[in-house]
Amino acid sequence: MANGEVPAGGSVPSSGIGEIAKREPLLRMVGLSKTFGAVRALTEVSFEVYAGEVVGLVGDNGAGKSTLVKTISGVGPADEGEIFVEGQPASISSPQAATRLGIETVYQDLALCDNLDVVSNLFLGHEEVSPFGALRETDMEKRGLEVLRILDVKIPSLRSLVASLSGGQRQSIAVAKTILRNAKVVLLDEPTAALGVAQTRQVLNLIKRLREQGLGVVVISHNMADVFEVADRVIVMRLGRRVGTFDVKNTTAERVIASITGAEFGGRSIEGASASSISGGNER
Ligand SMILES: Nc1ncnc2c1ncn2[C@@H]1O[C@H](COP(=O)(O)OP(=O)(O)OP(=O)(O)O)[C@@H](O)[C@H]1O
Ligand SMILES: [Mg+2]
After folding, report:
1. What average pLDDT does the segment 38-54 reach?
2. What are the structural domains of the chain?
3. Less Cβ around it within 10 Å: N or C end of the chain?
4. Rounded-to-integer distance, Cα 76 and Cα 140, Å
5. CA 7 from chain center: how many Å?
């Protein structure tokens, strides 16, 4: 297909990301629709993420990205549609159900406790307790250190208060927490939006480490440079529909942006762009 476009939800050509796409996705959603009163926030959206893959989920404000992530994370289930986790039909009716299925979401506000140290945050709500009810502090420190080492997260100390950490370090702790909950799929909503250059680098590296660990990662971002650095595939939403899917190795930011804005839609062109340069990614 032209312009790095790959079919939605189906198998992809044998080049590029084709190898991973031949397998069953970790998570597949089919025909998701959701309305808020008169607003159709999602219309028959299908979505899939494979093990060892980073999917960039992009689209303009109000395109339906957060609504889609909320259907996956169990915060706002869809009105219609089917969900398959590792090929098995599943229902994600609550965040607890998502956690049981190995799906974890890191929201922008992160939900960390500033007044607690790193270990306490890592295990908050999932503390390891001895048969006599005592917290297994050394066990938690050991596991916490191990996960931070695997993810190559650098922090001053496990006993540092989270309030004293940088934005990138905090984001990293929130992601490490999902690993400690045995996540298979991690959803990140604008993980670098509030971060400086060095902190953004730390989080992008962390996302790559998640992929190396075989997780499926979904990253919502408005930052094309970040998306192109970490994503294997980019899925474009517009007005509640999935309108484009791109293999990042075979496309450009301009083509993805054209799909986001609808510049390629119905043969309408964007200023200064030729018809061929804006035709990719349209799935309708
Ligand atoms: N709780 C809600 N009640 C009513 N309408 C909603 C609600 N949540 C989302 N919407 C509507 O659904 C549509 C999709 O919103 P959504 O938040 O998913 O967009 P988004 O792609 O995440 O945008 P942004 O990039 O601005 O975060 C919008 O028209 C929005 O107004
Ligand atoms: Mg949003």
Report:
1. 96
2. 2-102+184-279 (3.40.50.300), 112-181 (no CATH)
3. C
4. 32
5. 19
